[in-house]
Design a protein that fits this description.
This protein has ten helices and eleven strands. By secondary structure, the chain is α+β, with helices and mostly antiparallel strands. Helix 5 packs antiparallel against helix 6, helix 5 packs parallel to helix 9 and helix 6 packs antiparallel against helix 9. The protein starts with 9 loop residues before the first helix and ends with a helix.
């Protein structure tokens, strides 16, 4: 049986109304407390996550071997990881106080600005390469992957300097091998008249390949007391060195010992790299304006008689030691051509002397034949004159005999007259 309640009763209605308000208030209070606690927990969780993520990001930045950075639209770094300091040698503060373009190699500025324009247009950049200046003045090659996010740029760069140098060294080696091949072909069956001009052409190619200022072929004089520059080529606006006078060995005694006696290459990138015992040589090279130098001894037979000398006057440079043996081949080609020219010129001189001797012999034989003819003619004339003289005397004697005879017989008189006539004829 159901119990019926008359809610129309005013007291009971008021009771239910107050109870409802109280329940609603309690519910609202519980709900507010719940959401307050939830918000607090959410904020705490978010702060925790943010802190955790920040720690993880810091740890990622700190331990990464790649160069990580965040840059702004004004062209400044706003965050860098320690790899930047290790790679470039600057402190993070030094890198962040300047615009990052200030560190870019001048030859790479145009490409770098184009990359920044693409990033400003919210386009990603992958495998972009440029060079950044180190604190010691050298440059490192960096390969970039960058992504824009609003006014910020998030980027990672790898130091690819070693790979670049390896690749460039290989390309340089291939170019040098091609140069060597081309020059070798030019010296095949070359005439003696072209040897000097071809050597100067070859030196010019060496000068342009290494981007230096002087390249020369030097020969020691027979008594080995001095050098003589036989062939030389210059870059633009480079001081000349006299090639007419001999250069005494006394001004390069250390180099002479290394090159001629020990048959070793002499190379330096900076004058200050020379040892103490090369002080005299250092002063000589300084007076010649040389900043970097490489000298290659050319061994022909058992001795070094020639040297290839390459000078950098306008700047210091590092020499690729891997190409030194190939430079020696250049020198051997030059020297072999000179020796062949010398032999051919000697052969031609011998042929000229032989032809001259043959001509002289022909002339001498002609003169001898002519002299013999002249001698025979002279002897004939002398014999004729002597005989004529004798006959004349005999004719005179016959005339005297004819006069001395007194009344000779007619027959004798006729014979004497006839003899006299024959003598006169």
């Amino acid at each position: 049986m159901a119990l019926a309640v008359d809610v129309s009763n005013s007291k009971l209605a008021l009771l239910f109304s107050g109870l409802s308000v109280r329940i609603a208030s309690i519910t609202s209070n519980i709900r507010d407390r719940f959401w307050a606690k939830s918000r607090k927990r959410a904020i705490g969780m978010r702060e925790y996550l943010n802190t955790q993520q920040s720690k993880e990001l810091d740890q990622f930045f700190d331990v990464s071997l790649d160069l990580l950075c965040i840059a702004n639209a004004e062209g400044h770094f706003v965050r860098l990881n320690p790899a930047w300091e290790t790679t470039l040698g600057y402190s993070k503060k030094e890198l962040m106080v300047q615009q990052f373009l200030d560190f870019v190699h001048p030859d790479d500025l145009l490409g770098t600005r184009e990359a920044i324009s693409n990033l400003a247009a919210q386009r990603k950049i992958i495998q972009f390469e440029n060079r950044y200046r180190c604190k010691d003045g050298t440059y490192r090659w960096l390969e970039w992957s960058s992504a824009p996010m609003g006014n910020l740029i998030f980027a990672v760069a790898r130091d690819i300097t070693a790979q670049k140098h390896t690749k460039m060294a290989l390309q340089e080696r291939l170019r040098f091998e091609q140069l060597l091949s081309d020059l070798s072909a030019r010296f095949v069956n070359i005439s003696p008249e072209r040897v000097d001009s071809e050597i100067e052409y070859g030196l010019k190619q060496i000068l342009e390949f290494f981007q230096v200022d002087r390249a020369a072929l030097v020969r020691t004089v027979p008594d080995r007391s001095s050098y003589r520059i036989t062939h030389i080529t210059y870059g633009e606006d480079v001081p000349l060195i006299s090639s007419e006078n001999e250069i005494p060995i006394s001004i390069n005694p250390w180099a002479y010992e290394k090159l001629i006696l020990k048959r070793k290459v002499v190379a330096f990138s900076r004058l200050d790299d020379l040892p103490t015992e090369a002080s005299v040589d250092k002063q000589t090279w300084k007076e010649w304006g040389i900043q970097s130098n490489v000298n290659i001894p050319i061994l022909v037979g058992k001795s070094v008689d020639h040297i290839i000398a390459i000078n950098s006057v306008k700047r210091e440079r590092v020499w690729p030691e891997g190409l030194f043996p190939r430079l020696q081949i250049f020198g051997e080609i030059f020297v072999s051509a000179l020796e062949r020219k010398k032999a051919e010129e000697a052969s031609r001189e011998n042929e000229r002397i032989l032809r001259q001797n043959e001509n002289d012999l022909r002339k001498l034989a002609g003169r001898l034949i002519y002299a013999q003819e002249e001698e025979r003619s002279r002897l004939a004339r002398e014999l004729h004159d002597d005989l004529a003289q004798r006959l004349a005397v005999f004719a005179i004697d016959v005339g005297r005999l004819q006069q001395q005879l007194v009344d000779p017989p007619v027959r004798v008189q006729e014979n004497l007259s006839e003899m006299k006539k024959d003598i006169v004829k």
